[in-house]
Hints:
- The chain is mainly alpha-helical and 266 residues long.
- Helices cover 72% and strands 0% of the residues.
- α4 (113-148) packs antiparallel against α5.
Amino acid sequence: MSHDPNPFDEEEVNPFAGASAPASKSRLPTLASKAFGFGNKNDATVDIPLDTVNDSNKRERELAAWEENLKRKEMDIKRREDALRGAGVTVDEKNWPPLFPIIHHDISKEIPIHAQKLQYLAFASWLGILLCLSWNVIAVIVCWIKGGGVKIFFLAIIYALLGCPLSYVLWYRPLYRAMRTDSAIKFGWFFFFYLIHIGFCILAAIAPPIVFHGKSLTGILAAIDTFSDHALVGIFYLVGFGLFCIETLISLWVLQKIYTYFRGQE
């Protein structure tokens, strides 16, 4: 039995030797994984929801179906137009006015050369009544501002809203088609309603005091009446009177020219 001379002398312990070495080696992977962020409970994960993928695929399918439907409709319209052309039916594409096409109008291509001049004159007559009715609205607005009353303004609006489309439907378009097809019925339709158009222009140029003292139309009598109250309103009405007079003269000339053309075609 050995005897320790100094039982209180502490044994020197090497912390880097003995059994502690394998333990430190075993902790290296754990420390490395923690240093690089692997193996933690709070690791960030990228979750891609299946609903998002499904929605994306659904949108792609809907877009493809919409494009397919649009192509099918375009082919159907083209097939119908080709069928109409094959049957001898003309398809009138809207092309006038250029910025906002609302009607079909192509004198140089659809009207015979010997009748194009007359058609251009009739077209100028139709544009003339549009100008007259538009200026009539402006002049009546000036009169209304100067105390002329709101009733004449509403009447001027009604004249413009009815006169512009009706003049095209009732006499200009029938003449256009009559020139294309030499249809006597369409010529007769044109003559009847064009005479009504000329009568309206004469009435507007005179503006007799029958509806609100005639101030809803810029005729000579209304111009004289307004001059006594407001000179500016009278000037606007005189300009309107001049426009209606010019439109009446042009319309009478167009009527005479087209009637001569019609009699020569008989």
